[in-house]
Every structure is written in structure tokens, then in C-alpha cells.
Amino acid sequence: MFAHNISITPVDDKITLTCNGRKIAETQRALKLHEPPLMPVYYIPRDDIDMSLLRPSTHKTTCPHKGQAVYFDLSCGEETLENVGWSYESPKDDVADIKDFIAFFESVVTIEAEDQ
């Protein structure tokens, strides 16, 4: 059982992330983390993200259930969007599956799921 009713499930669909029409990531290995009452969040493996578009930010937050999150700025065309993605570098044991994965704010990037 996960802390605080958090569930993490593999996603069967191919997930594509874009920003202003530019592909940021494409994966068939995404995880979906659901932490009620929050909406589910896709976590994307770093290996499937164009990491050249991301720069570490100095922003950090702490979740009592997942640990400390570090953030990333995203180069999206001619603009840099601050703190768009986040990752738990040393997640708590109950959510260890999200280590080496990055989540993105869906209000900033477009996330499309395609049935496989």
C-alpha cells in the first residue's frame, strides 16, 4: 500500500509531450501517479525526454509523501518556461518507481495518449 493513497500504474498508451508544436518526449514507458484528490500525473522516463531542452532550476518543493522535488526550466521555441517539469531525485520508498522520471505541468505542455 502506498503512503497517503498514492497509486502508480504503468501506462499502456504511447505518450507524446509537445510545447508549441515541438516534441519534448515520446514514450511507451510512462507511469501515471494518482494522489487523490489531485488529478493523475504522467511521469516520463528521462531516457525518453529530449533533455537538451531542459535546464535544472533552483526551485525545490517538498512533499511529505514523495520527498523533495527538483524543477526544470523548458526551452520552448524562443522562450524559456520556468519550473515546467519536476522530478523526485530520491523519492520516498513507497513511490520509488518514479525515480529517474520527470512530470510536467499539463497547463504548459500538451500531453497526448495514443492507444497501442
Key structural traits:
Metal Binding Protein, Guanine Nucleotide Exchange Factor, Chain A, 7-stranded antiparallel sheet, 3-stranded antiparallel sheet
Structure write-up:
The chain is mostly beta strands and 116 residues long. The protein has a single domain, classed as Domain of unknown function (DUF427) (Metal Binding Protein, Guanine Nucleotide Exchange Factor, Chain A, Beta Complex). It has no helices and ten strands. The strands form two sheets. Strands 1-4-5-9-8-7-6 form a seven-stranded antiparallel β-sheet, with no helix packed on it. It is globular, with a radius of gyration of 14 Å. The mean pLDDT is 94.
Task: Give the arrangement of secondary structure elements.
Layout: E1 7-10, E2 14-19, E3 22-27, E4 31-34, E5 41-45, E6 54-63, E7 67-76, E8 79-88, E9 101-104, E10 110-114
Antiparallel strand pairs: 1-4, 2-3, 2-10, 4-5, 5-9, 6-7, 7-8, 8-9
Kindly report how far apart the N and C termini lie: 29 Å
Number of separate helices: 0
Report the structural category. mainly beta
The strand count comes to 10
Here the CATH topology equals Metal Binding Protein, Guanine Nucleotide Exchange Factor, Chain A
Order of SSEs:
EEEEEEEEEE
CATH second-level architecture: Beta Complex
The structural domain count equals: 1
Percent of residues in β-strands: over 45%
Q: What is the 3D form?
A: globular
Helix content: under 10%
CATH superfamily: Domain of unknown function (DUF427)
| Spatial order of the strands forming the largest sheet | 1-4-5-9-8-7-6
Mean pLDDT: 94
